[in-house]
Design goal:
mainly beta; Methylamine Dehydrogenase, Chain H; 4-stranded antiparallel sheet; disordered N terminus
């Protein structure tokens, strides 16, 4: 590559964001797995500053150093990996391995799978209830949530529902776990002290609720209603819908950055929708930020406010890479 081309590429990557844009692309990280195959959830290891990314198609867990944007390890042996949950102070990540209907326990010191836990059909999204030392894994097609004791690395309970389960989330203020019941358009409340169901609440104005993120400070759930392409803000204290905003098709994963009050939604139709929390009861859409099609997952680093999203295609051509974005803050996007 000539010096001129290197300069042109640097200018394109580092150029200021266009007016009105909420994100600015700053890096691309090529990944070694097969191109054109589906990615799924991502999460952040705040202790080692690792980005953890599930490449569902080939069954690979990527470990990426966020300080250098370099791949540290591609860990095989997690067939059909969908969800993943990092547990602080243990150097472990729990993977939802749909290809074998098991939950994998990955040791990030040895970078290997050290245990596999048989679970119900299609293990998927997950959340960690820190004070209780438990990971909650949604078994979507099994209509259940598996409860993993991270001290024993054992499933200590399976909570069953009458509906397929979507993303669970832990509210650190209320000390409760909330589970999307996507066929019923409800949210279930679970007490992690006893793993009993405390209630099930209808989400008005929402059809087929799958993705969810939580603002514990304000007791709000951000729910993706893919059946009617609606972003719903749900009061976890009042059990009522507070706001409904439109989304593009294919919304799957939602993440919340409390430092900026921003909510990001990955939509496989080719957008990251960006919403702003003005206060506990007021929300606005900032932008449907254009990305490649089939981008349906993302992660947010709460320390740097960077957004990470995997790509499996570029203009229809297969790729395998991670794209890094800086959050662009303006008076419009951060009151």
């Amino acid at each position: 590559m000539t010096t001129l081309w290197r300069c042109l590429i640097a200018i394109l990557i580092l150029a200021p964001a266009l007016p009105g844009q909420a994100l600015k692309q700053i890096a691309k990280i090529d990944l070694p797995g097969p191109k054109g195959q589906r990615f799924d959830y991502l999460t952040i290891d705040d202790e080692d500053r690792f980005l953890l990314s599930a490449h569902l198609g080939p069954g690979i867990l990527y470990v990426i150093d966020m300080r250098t944007n370099k791949l540290v390890k591609a860990i095989p042996g997690v067939p059909g990996i969908t969800g993943l949950e990092f547990v602080p102070e243990t150097h472990k990540v729990y993977t939802s391995d749909w290809g074998e209907e098991k939950i994998g326990v990955v040791d990030l010191r040895s970078m290997t799978v050290v245990k596999r836990l048989a679970t119900a059909a299609k293990p998927n999204g997950s959340t960690y209830a820190t004070p209780f030392h438990k990971v909650y894994v949604s078994d979507t097609l099994g209509k259940a949530v598996a409860v993993v004791d991270v001290d024993k690395d054992e499933i200590v309970k399976t909570i069953e529902f009458a509906s397929e389960t979507g993303m669970p989330q832990y509210d650190s203020a209320a000390r409760k776990v909330y589970v999307n019941l996507r066929n019923a358009n409800e949210v279930a409340e679970v007490d992690p002290a006893t793993d009993t169901i405390l209630g099930k609440y209808p989400v008005d104005g929402c059809q087929f609720n799958h993705g969810m993120a939580v603002d514990s400070e304000h007791h709000r759930a951000f729910i993706l209603c893919s059946g009617n392409r609606t972003f719903t803000v749900f009061g976890l204290d009042t059990h009522k819908s507070i706001a409904h905003l439109p989304m593009p098709a294919g919304a799957d994963v939602v993440k919340f950055d409390p430092g900026l009050g921003r909510i990001y939604v990955a939509c496989s139709s080719g957008f990251i929708s960006v919403f702003q929390e003005q206060d506990a009861d007021h929300f606005q859409k900032l932008e449907d930020f254009a990305v490649e099609k089939m981008v349906h997952s993302l992660a947010v680093d709460l320390a740097s406010h960077r957004v990470y999203a995997p790509e499996q295609e570029e203009n229809g051509r297969p790729v395998a890479r991670m794209v890094v974005y800086d959050a662009v803050t303006t008076d419009r996007s951060k009151p």
